[in-house]
Amino acid sequence: DNRSLLIHDTLKSLIGQLPNTFIQSHKSFAVNSNHVLRVHHNKITLKNSKDIPLGRKYGHYLHKRLGYVF
Fold it and tell me: Rounded to two decimals, what is the model's pTM?
């Protein structure tokens, strides 16, 4: 659905309240690992074909959580 929510909290705090399948991928984005199709150098492609940015700071951690080998 196309609803919007305004939340006055940090993304890190919000992710801490979500199931552990949510991983921060960028300073402004989190992704549900159950919906990841492919991880590229600087983006994540979801199963619905949408791309999410992948920040350099989060790439190694995301690969580790998803079990990818460099």
Answer: 0.79
